[in-house]
User: Fold this.
Amino acid sequence: MTQSLTIRRPDDWHLHLRDGAMLAGVLPETARHFARAIIMPNLVPPVVTGAQAAAYRDRILAAIPEGMSFQPLMTLYLTEDTNPTDVAAAHASGLVTAVKLYPAGATTNSASGVANFDNVRGVLEKMAEIGLPLCIHGEVTTHDVDIFDREQVFLETVLHPLRERTPGLKVTLEHITTSHGIDYVSGADGDMAGTITTHHLMINRNHILVGGIKPHYYCLPVAKRREHMEALRKAATSGNPRFFLGTDSAPHSDANKESACGCAGCFTATNTMACLAHVFEEEGALDKLEGFASMFGPVRYGLPPNEETITLVKEPEPVPYPAKIDTGDGPVTVFDPGHPLYWRVA
Ligand code: DOR
Ligand code: ZN
Assistant:
């Protein structure tokens, strides 16, 4: 029997599109299913000023294929030199939807991120005043903290003090990977929300390391123990509007992933909706998918949910999807959940 599910067209509240040939190659994969996405600013050099965000938005709009519609929601990359007035102007003009905080050195192209949080107080206070949300990569980068503990330690030593110092600041803890992150967001006040990726609902650290190193499962924050994956699945399928989809789909060429020092990032744009339908069905929560992928994010960001719909169809046989996307920067491997997928977007 064919099963189908019609939901409002989803949005992606955390996406890497890159630039140039990579942008042209990967953008259709997102625009095919998603109406809007929060675009990460970690280009080289990063998108720091309103002028840079406007120029990047124009390059994204120019790369949308004929016949597809897609709205990029731009972000600014927070540095210790970020000017509160520039941020406020970019927000007031409607250009910028959020500001992104990378702790310096936490991940891909984060060298210009924040090392001393005292130096961004003025910007954060201005953001609280004007209601501009802060998206956070929540990991400490100190070398004495184990990579599997970096999210948990960040909550206690950075995030909580930062929020206490800046009342009213809206914060999104992005790509949550631990039960600690879930508990923190669930227990905080209404200024706090969190995004969850597709891949962190489907892989844990065994997928990366058992039977040989699998570079295409390596991302940051790195996937944790199975119990954490289970906490994420529970939160995502709970119907709690604090948790919504941010795929963190992060393309790198195969040459850059399959290397002695492979880049962090899972490229999930192509099959995210099929993967999510699979997970939500396994959790007996298909009725919660629309909230997670299409409703809670817009509410959080004060935007209307999309009027259009998509229909997910479950086939009796596995539905094929491409193993790789060809881009002008080389092939990019599509996330493999490790089992067949039966859902497709009609
Ligand atoms: O795995 C990741 N890839 N995590 C990040 O935070 C950055 C991203 C990227 O830009 O490749
Ligand atoms: Zn990211």
About this structure: The pocket of zinc ion (ligand 2) is lined by residues 14, 16, 40, 248, 250 (CB under 6 Å). The two ends are 16 Å apart (CA to CA).
